[in-house]
Amino acid sequence: MNLNIAVLPGDGIGPEVTKQAVKALTAIASEYNHNFKFTVADVGAIAIDKHGDALPDETLELCKNTDAILFGAIGDPKYDNDPSAKVRPEQGLLKLRKEMGLFANIRPVKAYQTLLDKSPLKKHIIEGTDISIYRELTGGIYFGEKQLSEDGNTASDLCTYSREEIERIARLAFVAAQNRDHRLTLVDKANVLESSRLWRKVVKELAEEYPDVKLDFLFVDNAAMQMILNPKQFDVILTENMFGDIISDEASVIGGSIGLLASASVGDKYAMFEPIHGSYPQAANKGIANPIASILSAAMLLSHFGLHNEAELIRLAVEKSLKLNITTPDINAENDTVTTTNVGDFIEDFI
Amino acid sequence: MNLNIAVLPGDGIGPEVTKQAVKALTAIASEYNHNFKFTVADVGAIAIDKHGDALPDETLELCKNTDAILFGAIGDPKYDNDPSAKVRPEQGLLKLRKEMGLFANIRPVKAYQTLLDKSPLKKHIIEGTDISIYRELTGGIYFGEKQLSEDGNTASDLCTYSREEIERIARLAFVAAQNRDHRLTLVDKANVLESSRLWRKVVKELAEEYPDVKLDFLFVDNAAMQMILNPKQFDVILTENMFGDIISDEASVIGGSIGLLASASVGDKYAMFEPIHGSYPQAANKGIANPIASILSAAMLLSHFGLHNEAELIRLAVEKSLKLNITTPDINAENDTVTTTNVGDFIEDFI
Ligand SMILES: CC(C)[C@H](C(=O)O)[C@@H](O)C(=O)O
Ligand SMILES: CC(C)[C@H](C(=O)O)[C@@H](O)C(=O)O
Known about the structure:
The structure is a homodimer of 351-residue chains.
Chain A: E1 2-10, H1 14-32, E2 35-40, H2 45-51, H3 57-64, E3 68-73, H4 77-80, H5 89-99, E4 104-110, H6 123-126, E5 130-136, E6 146-148, E7 154-162, H7 163-178, E8 183-188, H8 194-207, E9 214-219, H9 220-229, E10 236-239, H10 241-251, E11 262-266, E12 271-275, H11 292-304, H12 308-323, H13 340-350
Parallel strand pairs in A: 1-2, 1-3, 3-12, 5-10, 8-9, 8-10
Antiparallel strand pairs in A: 4-5, 4-11, 6-7, 11-12
Helix pairs in contact in A: 1-11, 1-13, 7-8, 9-10, 11-12, 12-13
Subunit structure (chains A, B): Homodimer.
Binding site for substrate (chains A, B): 97, 107, 135, 221
Enzyme class (chains A, B): oxidoreductase
C-alpha cells in the first residue's frame, strides 16, 4: 500500500516520540512491502517561533494532501501564563482539528496485564478494563464564540452543539459498541446544561436504530468518580469535547502511565493519530519520554487503513517491550536507564 | 448560642441523612447549652410534586431569615431523561445558591487513617492526603445564558466570569491557604478558554497580596489525572463551577466513599451546608445511606459559627464510628447490617 503521511512533531517531547513512531512504521513498510512516504512540517510553539503562526498555511496544505497525519504534541509554558498572548501553540492543534473536520477523537483505555502494578489504582479495580472513549473534537466550548470585554474584566466562552455534530460522532460510537460489548454510556451534564440535554435527546433517538446496543447516561461528575471506582463497568463512552478532554486524561491512570495512550482523530475525509499526552517540556531532550503512546498511535493509523496484521505486529512489539521491561522511567521502577530511543530501537528490531 | 437553622432534606436519601445530622446537632445543643431551632422546608423534586416549584417562595423566604441552611440532596431520575421537562429539581438548588449569593463551595478531602483500605487507590498514594477544594458556585456555565433554537436542533450554554466573581472566591482560597500549607493551585483550561485566561490573570494579580502563598496553575485535564496519581501534592485547589463539580466528585474516591464528604457553601451573608453526594434514589428508604457526609456538614456549620469544640466533638464521634466499624455498607465490607439510623444513634450517644 502507498501512504503519504504528514509528520507533525510539534513541541516538547513531540519530536522524540514521533521519531520512534516513524521508525516503527518504516520497519512495518519494509517488512510488508508497503510504501510509506513521510513529510515533516511545523506546528505549535515551534511554528510560532519559526513562522509566527501556530499552524502555517504550508502545514495545513500538506495535511490536506496526505492520507494521514502523525501528530506529536503541542504547547509551551512560555505561552501558558501570558493571558495576553495573541498567538498560542494550542491554536495550531485546534485549527488543524477544525479545518480537517476531525470531529471524533477515539481514545482506547486498557489495563495491560504486565503493568497492573504500576497504576495508582488497585489491581482488582483495573484488571480487565477495556474502554473506548469517543470524544467530540470540533465543537462545544472549544470552538464557540469567545469574548473579552473592552475593560478586560469579563470573559466568556460559548458552548454550542447542533444535532448534526452530535449525530455524526454518536453513530461512530454506536457502531463501535456493536463491534465491542454492545454498551454505550453518554457522559453529560443534562441536569444543568441545555447543550447536554440536546446530546441526551439526539442520542436517545438514535439508539432506536441500534437496538443491540444498551445505552445509558451518566452525569460527568459521577462519571469522573465511576471511572476510578469501577472502570470495568464501561465499554464505549461518548461525550462532548470538554468533558472528553477531562475524562480521558483521568482514565489514563488506569494504564499506569499517560505515556501509553494513543488516540485517533477522524472525520469524513481525514484522519490524524496522536498520543493523548502533552508536550511535557520539562522532559524534553532527556531521553525519558515514553514513545509508546506515539507508536501505538501509528498502530491505530495502520488499522485505519485496514492494515490489521501490521497494526497487530506493532502492538505485539509494544507488549513484548513492556514484558521485558524495556521501558522508560515513567513505568520502569527497576531500571531508569532505558531511553526513548532504546524503546524505539527494540520495537523496530522486533518488527 | 441561638441558631435558627433551615433544614431542606430534599430528595432521595436526603431526608434520611439530614435527620441524622439534626440528631447530632440536637445532641450538641443539649450538651453545650445552645439553642438550635430547626425549621423544615421543601426543595427539589418533592417541592415540584407538592408545589409545582423546585424552590417555593416560602422555602427561599425561610432561608433568607435563618442563620444557616442544612441541605440534604436533590434530584430524581424521572426528570433526568426528559429533555423537555420544564421544571427540574436541580433548578431549586441552583436558584437557592444564586439567590442566597453562596458563591464559594468549600469541599475538604481527607484520607481517613481507618479507611485507607477502602479506597480504590493504593494506600501509599492517598495516605496523608488533605485537600481543600474551593469551587466557584454561582457563576460560569451553570448560570450563563442557555439557548435552544426554535427547531430544537441547536443548543448552547454560555460560560461567563467577571473579575469580581473570581476575586471574591480567590481571596477566600488564598486565606485558606495561609491557614494551611500555603499552597494554592488554580485549575483551569487557560490554553483554550477565554474565561480561564481571565481566572489566571486575576488570580496572578491577587497573588501579590498573599506573598506567603505559593501559587501554581494546572490545566483541568492534567488536574483530573494528578488527583489520582498523586493527591498529596495538593493543598488548596481553586477552580470555576463546572471544573469544581467534576474534580471534587472525582476526589471523593480518595476518602473511600462519597458518603463521607461534606461541604460548605458560603457567601457574604448566608451559609449552607450539604453533603457532596447526590440523592441516590435507588438507595432511598433502605437504611443503607451513609449519613456521615451530612453529619460532617453539620460540623462545618458549627465551625462556621465559631463553635470549634462542638464541631470537633462531632468529628471525633465520626472517627470513633469509623474505627468501631459502625458504618453503612458502602464502607463496611464485614457487616452490612448497620443502618443509617444506627450510625446516627451511635454519634448522638457519643456526643
Ligand atoms: C493541548 C490541548 C488544546 C488539547 C485539548 O484540550 O484538546 C489536549 O489537552 C488534548 O486533549 O488533545
Ligand atoms: C445536582 C447538581 C446540579 C449539583 C451541581 O452540579 O452543582 C451537584 O452535582 C453538586 O455538585 O452539588
